[in-house]
Amino acid sequence: MTLRFESLGHTDPGKVRAHNEDAILVREDVGLWVVADGLGGHSAGDYASSMIVQRLGALPRQGNVFDFIESIEDALVQVNTDLRRVALERGVDIIGSTVVVLVHDKDFMLCGWVGDSRAYCLENGQLVQITRDHVHGMKEDVTQFGASQQAPGSGVLTRAIGAEEHLFVDWVVAGSRPGMAFLLCTDGINKEMSDAELNRECVAYSDPQVLLARLFELSLSRAARDNISAVIVRLQD
User: Fold this and answer.
1) pLDDT band, very low/low/confident/very high, at 143 (cuts 50, 70, 90)
2) 207 by DSSP, 3-state: which?
3) Is the pLDDT of residue 151 over 60?
4) What pLDDT is stored for residue 3 in this prediction?
5) CA 40 to CA 186: how far, in whole Å?
6) Short-list 173, 17, 24, CA closest to 110
7) What pLDDT score does 17 carry?
8) Is 75 left (phi over 0), alpha (psi -120 to 50) or beta?
9) Where are the beta strands (DSSP E) in 28-180?
10) First to last CA, the chain
11) Is-contact 168 113, C-beta < 8 A?
12) Residue 40: pLDDT band by 50, 70, 90 thresholds?
């Protein structure tokens, strides 16, 4: 049995932000999907998220899946270094972004992330978050890196690309079975929809195109305080 997939993504600036600092990547040819969210409240978030997507989008898939994962990590480490250099040259504190990455293999799916962009897995009518937000404290509308710019007790990112000298990417292994679906999204989705509501919508609409349209319809019908981005991947026979 050879698994195939149907996937698509979309990004929207929302109703409040002046421009879009999110970026997405859909590369079915190499089994790679990416969502990146430039850090709000810091400089040039769109530059950071675009660099991530451009670098990962240029990667060839050679060798086995672990060779591909290594090349993804190497690319993200280089982006981290380059963003820190550019921030120093421009005299700004941070130019950074969060990212969530999904990689397909015939035997499993691999998901990597830095920050609070999320990945969910849907199987047997249950949506489960498979990433864990790199956030300390209570998450609010604007989650920045570093506690100095936040009110006491509010949420702060503990990890982001471009934020610190050494970059650590967390990875999780998920199944790769017919009928499974994956949702990658920036926190612009989570600010407007609870996990319970996401679960209901993902169960109700199995077609990725219909589901994607539904998620954006609901998010944009509300405050849409942040940029909104999502990628949906559904595994087929």
Assistant:
1) low
2) coil
3) no
4) 65
5) 12
6) 173
7) 86
8) alpha
9) 32-38, 97-104, 109-114, 118-123, 126-129, 135-136, 144-145, 156-157, 170-174
10) 7
11) no
12) confident
Is residue 2 pLDDT above 80, yes or no?
A: no
16's tokens: 């409040």
Q: What is the CATH number of the domain that holds 174?
A: 3.60.40.10
How many other C-beta atoms can be found within 10 angstroms of the C-beta atom of residue 111?
A: 22
Six token digits for residue 204:
């109700």
Reduced to 3 states (helix: H, G, I; strand: E, B; else coil), residue 186 is coil
CA dist 6 and 123 (Å) reads 16
pLDDT bin (cut points 50, 70, 90) of residue 233 is very high
Q: With a cut of 60, say whether residue 58 has pLDDT above it.
A: yes
Q: For residue 174, count other CB atoms closer than 10 A to its CB.
A: 17
Of 57, 82, 59, 86, the closest CA to residue 70 belongs to 59
Residue-wise pLDDT tens digits, 180-199: 999 999 999 999 999 999 99
Nearest CA to 52 out of 21, 29, 88, 10 is that of: 21
- For residue 147, what are the domain limits? 4-236
In total, how many domains does the chain have? Answer: 1
Residues 36, 113 contacting (CB under 8 angstroms) = no
The first and second tokens of residue 21, run together, are 């600092």
Which strands sit side by side in the sheet containing 4-12, from one edge to the other?
A: 4-12, 228-236, 181-185, 118-123, 126-129
> Given CA atoms 126, 209, 212, 54 in this order, what sign does their dihedral have?
positive
